Recover the amino acids of this structure.
């Protein structure tokens, strides 16, 4: 039951004077004092209004003496005196009733639905959108409680009901959807108008008027906003930019924009883009197809063929991606095998160079010693200055050779890394980052190969340097000791004795 009906009946006020202006209700009238109800009747009627709304009844006589009655007031005696002082003068009272609507559990009261609709549609589209945006900043849904008649509707985020009973609303995460939309589109007003088409998609209603048409307009407007690359809306127009095969700019005059059933295609496209995943691929393809279909016409000339073409092109795109995905898997398998061989070759070359270096040095030393042993020359001075100079030159050459080996190994690994990165990058247009991470196992194989090469290179470089250092130490010791000479004499004596 609508409590406003009892109130206006009490004061003999016509329903048409009830001005329901979204968040406030105002009623104004002049009435004779002998027609005023009792204070008790007024209090009982006020008590029937929902606790979330603040109602005040303001009375003023012709001498501008006034009195205010509200839910929390207790001024019955003042009211009686006010009437008594004016009743015999045959004067009239000026009555102003104000209901300030508060929001509790996301509910907003409606006391005169026709006035509510009229006032809503008097505002500009932008003002309407700002109203909804402000309310959605407070909560993810809005519940209008219509006390006046049986009008009802519901969208994904907005409900009009005839009851104050608690309502459970099951809806998707608006903030997550908005973030998803802003991730692929640049809406210049996304802070002051943080709304999505789903907020205005009417699931069911028994209303057919301009209010419902406005909600449908908002649904189409925001579908266009999130299909476009760039968009901006002001009091006069919606400006959108589409960058596809052809870059196009469109301007939609808001005062000339009327909802048409064919515009539902935009909402269908929006839902298709943002359902599930792959919105980046879908929206890029959508912009290309719309640009092609609207090459010589306005974007509002869209028809059902456009959406069919978008879905058909996407199916072809998916098939091509499957073929490329299989190709990628084959290439990846081949790359893993080849890269393993390549890494083994890099490691093998480094170790081989180390072995060659050691073998060459040992061969030279042994050759020098044996040559002196089997010769008839005295062995008193086997490590002559010339031989020591040659050995030092060999050791320096070995250091240089080590540096070259390290550099070659580094460049071979960088070549492997470049091939690896190029392969990953070449498929970024086909796969998203998550797919690439799965296929390449989060670079596990690459990191293992990198670690293995570094470990082998460090170990054998250290051994290489140690061998060189030891050789230098031996040479230095030889310069100040006859130890080597004595050792050689002993070896020479053993060899001579074996020949007798």
């Amino acid at each position: 039951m609508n409590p406003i009906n009892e109130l206006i009946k009490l004061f003999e006020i016509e329903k048409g004077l009830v001005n329901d202006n979204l968040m406030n209700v105002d009623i104004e009238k002049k009435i004779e004092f002998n027609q005023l109800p009792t204070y008790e009747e007024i209090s009982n009627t006020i008590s029937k209004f929902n606790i979330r709304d603040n109602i005040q009844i303001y009375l003023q006589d012709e001498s501008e003496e006034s009195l205010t009655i509200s839910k929390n007031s207790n001024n019955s005696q003042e009211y009686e005196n006010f009437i008594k002082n004016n009743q015999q003068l045959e004067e009239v009272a000026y009555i102003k009733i104000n209901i300030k609507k508060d929001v509790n559990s996301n509910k907003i009261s409606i006391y005169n639905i026709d006035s509510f609709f009229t006032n809503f549609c008097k505002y500009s589209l932008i003002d309407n959108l700002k109203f909804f945006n402000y309310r959605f900043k407070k909560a993810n849904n809005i519940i209008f409680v219509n006390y006046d008649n049986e009008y009802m509707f519901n969208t994904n985020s907005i409900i009009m009901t005839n009851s104050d009973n608690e309502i459970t609303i099951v809806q998707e995460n608006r903030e997550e959807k908005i973030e998803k939309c802003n991730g692929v589109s640049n809406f210049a007003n996304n802070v002051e108008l943080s709304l999505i088409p789903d907020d205005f998609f009417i699931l069911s209603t028994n209303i057919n008027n301009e209010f419902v048409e406005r909600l449908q307009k908002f649904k189409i407007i925001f579908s266009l906003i999130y299909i476009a690359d760039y968009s901006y809306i002001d009091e006069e127009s919606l400006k959108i930019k589409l960058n596809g095969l052809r870059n196009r700019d469109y301007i939609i005059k808001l005062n000339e924009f009327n909802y048409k059933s064919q515009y539902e295609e935009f909402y269908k496209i929006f839902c298709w883009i943002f359902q599930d995943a792959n919105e980046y691929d879908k929206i890029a393809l959508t912009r290309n197809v719309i640009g092609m279909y609207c090459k010589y016409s306005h974007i509002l000339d869209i028809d059902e063929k456009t959406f069919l073409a978008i879905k058909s092109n996407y199916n072809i795109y998916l098939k091509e991606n499957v073929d490329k995905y299989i190709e990628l898997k084959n290439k990846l398998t081949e790359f893993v095998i080849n890269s393993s061989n390549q890494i083994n070759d890099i490691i093998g070359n480094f170790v081989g160079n180390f072995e060659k270096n050691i073998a060459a040095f040992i061969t030279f030393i042994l050759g020098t010693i044996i040559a002196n042993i089997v010769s008839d020359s005295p062995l008193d001075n086997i490590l002559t200055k010339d031989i020591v100079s040659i050995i030092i030159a060999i050791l320096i050459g070995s250091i240089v050779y080590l540096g070259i080996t390290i550099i070659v190994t580094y460049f071979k690994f960088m070549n492997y890394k470049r091939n690896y990165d190029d392969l990953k990058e070449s498929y970024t247009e086909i796969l998203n980052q998550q797919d690439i991470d799965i296929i390449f196992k989060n670079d596990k194989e690459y990191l293992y190969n990198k670690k293995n090469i570094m470990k082998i290179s460090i170990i054998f470089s250290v051994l290489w340097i140690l061998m060189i250092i030891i050789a230098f130490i031996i040479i230095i010791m030889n310069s100040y000791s006859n130890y080597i000479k004595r050792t050689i004499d002993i070896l020479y004596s053993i060899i001579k004795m074996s020949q007798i």
Q: What stands out?
A: Residues 304-374 form the longest helix (71 residues).
